[in-house]
């Protein structure tokens, strides 16, 4: 019986929190906050994408240096 009560209590608390968040997001302050969060996430996504592209370029360089090493070619300059 206690488990059933805990489940119902948790469900009701979750519904109340959801309703409060929805009401907040519909207010002017909530809309401003949501816009700021979206802009921040967009900037973070762009930075992450550029970092991943840079890492991909570096990995390609490492692969090429490894291939060159296994062929016995002259070592190329290592970028720091």
Task: Quickly count the helices.
Answer: 2
- Our estimate of the beta-strand percent is under 5%
Estimate the global geometry from the Cα principal axes.
elongated
Radius of gyration, Cα only, in angstroms? Answer: 26 Å
Overall helicity: over 70%
Main pleated-sheet profile: none
**Oligomeric state of the chains present here:** single chain
Name the structural class.
mainly alpha
Cα(first) to Cα(last) distance is: 65 Å
What is the residue-mean pLDDT, rounded to a whole number? 89
What is the N-to-C order of secondary-structure elements (H for helix, E for strand)? HH
Give the low-pLDDT segments. none
Number of strands: 0
Structure summary:
The protein has 80 residues and is mainly alpha-helical. The protein has two helices and no strands.
Question: How would you describe this structure to a colleague?
Answer:
- The protein has 80 residues and is an all-alpha fold.
- It has helices at residues 2-26, 28-71.
- The longest helix has 44 residues, at 28-71.
Main attributes?
single chain, 80 residues, mainly alpha, 2 helices, 0% strand
List strands and helices in order, with pairings:
Elements: H1 2-26, H2 28-71
């Amino acid at each position: 019986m206690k488990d059933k009560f805990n489940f119902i209590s948790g469900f009701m608390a979750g519904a109340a929190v959801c309703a409060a968040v929805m009401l907040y997001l519909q207010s002017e302050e909530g809309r401003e906050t949501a816009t700021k969060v979206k802009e921040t996430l967009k900037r973070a996504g762009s930075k992450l994408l550029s970092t991943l592209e840079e890492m991909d370029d570096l990995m390609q360089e490492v692969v090429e240096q490894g291939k060159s090493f296994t062929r016995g070619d002259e070592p190329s300059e290592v970028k720091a």
